[in-house]
Request: fold
Amino acid sequence: MYLFVDAEFLPLPGDSHMLLSIGMCGPLGEEFYGELETAVDASENDFVVEHVLPQLNKGLGLRGSQETIRSALVEWLRRFEGERIELCYDFHVDRLAFEELVDSASLSPRFGFEAVHVAYLLGDADAALAADACWAELERSRGLRRHHALADAIALRARFNSAHSIEMDDPNGLTAPMDPRVGEGGQRPSCIDDVIDLREASRLLHVSRTAIRKLVNAGALDVIRTTQFGDERVSRSAVLEHRAAMKRRQARGLKQMMEASTKLGLYDDELLLAQGPRRGSKPQSTTAD
Reply:
């Protein structure tokens, strides 16, 4: 079962953030929305002032302290106990916001989830159209605009369903499909199954896990899933593509090195030895007269 999450936040110095609101939606129309009741000084952040703050404190969902939001969210999640939950997000702070609110100690042992990074959806033109249609309908019917946490969570679901050809009762993505696990042809989206751990990635690339960690930190490999125990997963196809790119770079480098060496005449002696002595010529003596 897929759940979709989005968070609105105020960026702070040191790559940290202040959570302002969090929105989630499930496959059958389940929704959660909470706002943190806290003083916000966003005077230096034009984006938050223009797009986020005007949509807060409109009477939707729950407004309260972080503990109040946490308790309500944990209670909302109880309906999914026993399900295999895949938490879809398109920006890393969304996942962090969820994890900060709901730590493993707060959840029932029967609730487990894996975080799935679906930022690839942002490059899908049809998915973008689905999200735009969803935002337009949400604004018309509920007064929710883009950059509202719940509106963006619902639009993310619309993107996902469009990209994976999941049929919906509502073309604008406001009502989810009866079976969100399958797409066209009855198959689960390949992005869910095409994941491997970092150990397998290191084996495929013939490098150490430390080297894989450096690739992840540098953004060369994206973490698309994190288990509830903090184990990271990357895309197998992305790893194989990276391996192919490595081989292409190695081949180009070797060719360039050989061309440069040939131009400098570094292989002349080896070529003469390979050709052998010319007909009618006397071999050079290797001893002194």
